[in-house]
């Protein structure tokens, strides 16, 4: 039963949560398949709906974070599991470049900034450690003099490198999900199938449904100035190789030009919201325009 408002006071209004604006997880998607020009035993299956979306990372510029009150952390609230020994070794080398001036929670020794956990609740796996209050140990607070956000990301930029060279695999791949496996065709031949898609809530496992907010489903993050296949060019090259990426770009551009593609509903919603003020919303005569704010393009951290 609704609570009665106190005399003379309006009833409290329930504010929408960030998650309430997310689109559903099930909608029509369009995929394309092609053979890697550099390897006829490698096939790529790409989610056109996702790669032609206008998603972009809005870390620090509207990101709500994956846990309540964790907006400044973005998706850095939990430690990142290493994918393999090469992933761990790359992080070991990158951490050696950090100092107390560039890493707020500076610590020495691999075992001091990593810890054991489990992805499935049974199999031990190593990941980056988290601080007592939750965020990944590599996350610098916004007011830290050395720069907020991921310390590894910041160091890569200072060194003139792409962040994927210094960050754990799972960090730089998000929110692209690549699944790879050898499959046998009806004629008995085998190919390596790489599937490129959206890392939505389900990508996190059962816990993904409990996230406070997730960007790929939200129109708030579908505000990029270029499509995903361009936005994530370096990452996609790292995932499938440059010859395959060049072919992917060619095919995406062709499809984009025709306009014949199953569009991501979050991108559609974002475009509708952007157009809404132009469609008849009039300003009261007495209202005065406020100061203009220059909102530059979001920068991924």
Strand line-up of the largest beta sheet: 1-2-8-7
What does the overall shape look like?
globular
The whole-angstrom Rg is: 22 Å
Helical percentage: 10-25%
Distance N to C terminus: 45 Å
Total number of β-strand segments? 8
Helix vs. strand class: alpha+beta
Please report the number of helical segments.
8
Q: How can the largest sheet be summarized?
A: 4 strands, mixed
Strand content: 15-25%
- Mean pLDDT equals 89
Low-confidence stretches: 283-301
Into how many domains do the coordinates divide? 2
- Element order, helices and strands? EEHHEEEEHHEEHHHH
What does it look like?
By secondary structure, the chain is α+β, with helices and mostly antiparallel strands. It has two domains: 141 residues, no CATH class; 98 residues, no CATH class. Helix content is 23%, strand content 16%. The protein has eight helices and eight strands; from the N terminus they run E-E-H-H-E-E-E-E-H-H-E-E-H-H-H-H. The strands form three sheets. It has a four-stranded mixed β-sheet with strand order 1-2-8-7. Strand 1 and strand 2 form a beta hairpin. Helix 6 packs across helix 7.
Structure described in brief:
Helices cover about 25% and strands about 15% of the residues.
List keywords for this structure.
301 residues; alpha+beta; 2 domains; 4-stranded mixed β-sheet; 8 strands; 23% helix; disordered C terminus
């Amino acid at each position: 039963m609704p609570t009665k408002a106190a005399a003379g006071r309006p009833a409290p209004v329930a504010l929408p949560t960030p998650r309430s604006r997310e689109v559903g997880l099930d909608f029509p998607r369009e995929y394309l398949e092609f053979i890697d020009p550099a390897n006829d035993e490698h096939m790529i299956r790409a989610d056109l709906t996702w790669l032609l979306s206008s998603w972009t990372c809005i870390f620090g510029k509207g990101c709500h974070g994956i846990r309540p009150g964790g907006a400044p952390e973005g998706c850095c609230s939990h430690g990142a599991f290493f994918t393999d020994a090469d992933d761990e070794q790359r992080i070991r080398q990158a951490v050696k470049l950090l100092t107390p001036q560039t890493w707020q929670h500076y610590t020495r020794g691999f075992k001091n900034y990593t810890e054991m956990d489990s992805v499935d609740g049974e199999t031990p796996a190593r990941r980056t450690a988290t601080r007592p209050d939750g965020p990944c140990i590599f996350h610098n607070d916004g007011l830290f003099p050395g720069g907020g956000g991921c310390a590894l990301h910041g160091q890569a930029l200072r060194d003139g490198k792409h962040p994927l060279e210094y960050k754990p695999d799972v960090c730089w791949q998000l929110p692209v999900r690549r699944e790879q496996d050898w499959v046998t065709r009806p004629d008995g031949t085998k190919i390596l199938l790489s599937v490129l898609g959206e890392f939505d809530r389900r990508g996190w496992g059962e816990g993904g449904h409990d996230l406070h907010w997730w960007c790929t489903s939200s129109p708030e993050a579908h505000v990029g100035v270029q499509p995903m296949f361009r936005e994530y060019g370096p990452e996609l090259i790292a995932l499938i190789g440059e010859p395959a990426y060049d072919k992917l770009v060619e095919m995406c551009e062709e499809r984009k030009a025709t306009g014949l593609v199953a569009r991501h509903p979050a991108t559609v919603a974002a475009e509708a919201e952007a157009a809404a003020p132009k469609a008849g919303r009039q300003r009261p005569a007495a209202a005065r325009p406020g100061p203009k704010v220059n909102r530059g393009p979001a920068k991924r951290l």
